[in-house]
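Input chain follows. Return structure tokens only.
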Amino acid sequence: MKKLLFTLVLALGALSLQAQIDRSKMPDAGPAPKINLDKAEQFKLGNGLTVLVVENHKLPRVSIQLNIDNPPIFEGDKAGVGSLSGSMMGKGSKSISMDAFNEEIDFMGARLEIYSQGASASGLSKYFPRLMELMADAALNPNFTQEEFDKEKEKLITGLKTSEKSASAIASRVRYALAYGKNNPYGEFTTEETVNNVTLADVERFYADYFVPANSYLVVVGDTNVEEVKKLVEKYFTPWIKASPPNLEFSDPTDAQYTQVNFVDVPNAVQSEIWVENLVQLKKNDPDYLPATLANFVLGFGGFSGRLMKNLREDKAYTYSARSSLGNSKWGTSTFGATAGVRNAVTDSAVVEILKEIDRMVEEPISEEDLKLAKAMYAGNFVMQLEKPSTVANYALDILQQDLPEDFYETFLERVDAITVADVQRASKEYFKPGNARVVVAGKGSEVLENLEKITFKGKPVPIKYYDKYANPTEKPDFGGDLPEGVSVQSVVDAYFEAIGGKEAVDKIQSLKLVYEGSAMGATIKSEELRTADKYAQTTFMNDAPMMGIVSKGDELFMKQGGNKVPLPDGMRQDMQKSLGIFAEQSFAMNPETKLVGIEAVEDAKAYRIDVPGETVQASYFYDVETGLKIKEATVINMNGQTQNQESLIKGYQEVDGIKFPAIKVSAMGPQQVESKLLEAVINYEVQESDFN
């Protein structure tokens, strides 16, 4: 088979050797490059499986991709069954155990994954026959067992619980549910309840219905040939029984009738997640596809050159990233969306700026310079993809699946080059609809709602509708109402000291050592804190080996890593000093900036929330209204345009020498919840100066 041919034909004018070049003018662009793509070899099995083969002998490697191009699948009250089906596959088969399967893959230095709607594998070409055999065996003969089902079900539920308080996950779930409706495959979502509805029999039924050869494509790229591939595919995939998936019909979703904010209160959110979106009807074979794609590129898909990034990041410093996306689907409706995660204080301003940039694309023609830059970057990305052997196969697969003209990619750059400013604006008017936009905001209502309620668009107020984290309509959040008369920061702190042993006993403590221990990622994690009135040292150990530490003393704040000291920003030092001391409450109660925000729910309890503001570090403390005990701590760190959230729930107290200390702290380490137990509490510990070096 021929190698991939990529020929750039450049029109060069005849220049005199003596001619002077005017370097003050940009040279005229030459004609669009012509592209010649070899065709992938193709054949089809009797069961409906289509096979595409691209030979490339530069490296002794082969990759295999199985793509099952099913219509959208609605899982209903068993949402999660597809995820469970995919997670149980690729772990051996009915003829080979999971351990033996994994050992053989590792021995070959290969990669093999099976998922609910396909599979992929890659490895050295000398192992290609065995890799094809293992892939087919695992895909066509999965070994669904109750034991593995229970494990995967537990993992899925744990992951769902971990994302429950994630503003980003909540915003994503709600935006799709509101755009499509929860009875649509693109609008439904997985919950702990729907996962618990799924049985092993449901997984087996899902596999039988949807892992079928109709509309399936097997793509092989690399150091092989058509004859070898055909022999192997016929041997290992002919047993795949001919079948088609169920084809369900769904009503088309509709856009919002007017611009509106759809707000979800996420009390623990450290920043607001914003999505401004509308529905679109766009297919890859539509004449508008390329003009609309370039319009989206100019708005926010073009990275740092996009208007959203220039406005919200570079000009306003509202966010680390702002971008847009424009979907296309042969099955029907997809979405256009613009998104950013922004600081609470600028949530309303960010919404206004995103709407403004979208509206500007609709109402004002872009400049020729913007169009030229977008074309150059888009064409550059396209050309770079041509260097990959898999590109020919992917393009051939795209032509089959998307019903594209045979020369769609050969004429791609010519058609991009022919797009005009008027084409881009016409596409913007068709697919960007700020007047029908849903502005989904998931954020901390107590801090952002007051200003969100003041937003206007084109001189008209933007109404707000309220939803819970599962996209159910709800009332405007109640942020605790009026505080009881006489309650203040000081009264809450006094009640806390009384609850843990009395203020007199607390005041007698001159130093303190606390040690907590938990486990995460198969390792023992230990945290040791030393506190005096004006010094603080915290060291984290993994399997008893020190990983890192933080030390604050006087005008110094630094991080310890091994024998190195890394100074931390002065703004962070100033913020952290607001909560130093034997107990943080002794310091922040004296700070006039400290605020008693209100009453919030912490799991099943009502708690007074106290905020200690700062430029780099903001801390929040929560105290049970009934007992006075602290039940949660949260810290938000803003550095270099990024935000990090640290949160610990306190479960019970343990008394040591008449003082109660948190017995268990539960916090997140990546996707895992870590439960740390109090190992040691030493009151008036004999600290040394070396402890803070």
